[in-house]
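Chapter review: from sequence to fold.
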Amino acid sequence: MTKTMDATHFENLGGAKLSDMTKNMAAAQFADLGAAKLVDMTKTMDASNFENLGGAKLVDMTKTMDATSFESLGGAKLADMTKTMDATHFENLGGAKLVDMTKNMGAAQFQDLGGAKMVDMTKTMDATHFENLGGSKVADMTKTMELKEFADLGGSKIADMAKTMGSEEYSQLGSTRVRDMAVTMQPGDLQGVGKGALEAITKELPSEGISSLGSDRVEVMVKGVDVTTIKEVGTAKLGNMMDVMKVDQIGELDAGKKSEILKSSGANFLKLKPAEGTEATETATSEIEWPDPEKIVEKPEFESLAKELETEAKSLLDNTVSAQALAALSRMRI
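The token string follows.
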């Protein structure tokens, strides 16, 4: 019966009637009808009709369709179909089919679906699927999620998503969401996102709340980015990052990076005199009691002596700056 009908006939019947008809069909019948016929039927239905059919029936219909079918249906219709499905249905469809559907949806549809639904969809996808979707689409998906959804997905999945995005996408996500992604990832996950993504994450992080990342994640960032990124993160953020890192972690940084951290913190030449009895054993700054910077630093007149001190400053920074000194200096605004 249905084989003899076309799009006009389906439209004439209406979505409710088609929904009732479709309820009595199974996967074999859908496959027999073919993708093109199912698309014509589906176009006539709306969200309430899909809800009437139920997620399992929609999965059987969707399995018969391909990327061309989804493109013909459009994002709004696909979102209405997706609302009826749950995590089990998405798993049944498989990541590749979900990618074909997701490619045809935009930010508005993802917002309509909501973070919880996006999590259920995302759990079925892997790194290859995210790469196929591309950074822009992954960013649109990520915008619907917050810390709770990131925690539900887990650090490994977040890392797979993070790999696909660049500086433009992270800028769109905003600093708070980027921090929530970073907090969800373990240090090993962060190491695996690649240098480009790691640099974009580091630049986009908010200056406040760095402590929530913990010293090991911050260490991965500082060690994984290049000197140019160190210059670009800003004095306040850099100081906060150094404050979170432990002394031994700072001590392991190469001389060039230590030098740039000092320069970016505004310290062009400093002679350090740590307070008597100060033992730097746990963290770089937050757990170490340092005296007032004016009491531990002899600060020459920079403008008049800058040229004379340049050579000596470079030597000091490259060869004699200790981890404790670097930790103290990174907090100074001079």
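Two observations follow directly from the output. Residues 115-206 form one domain. The first strand starts at residue 271 and ends at 272.
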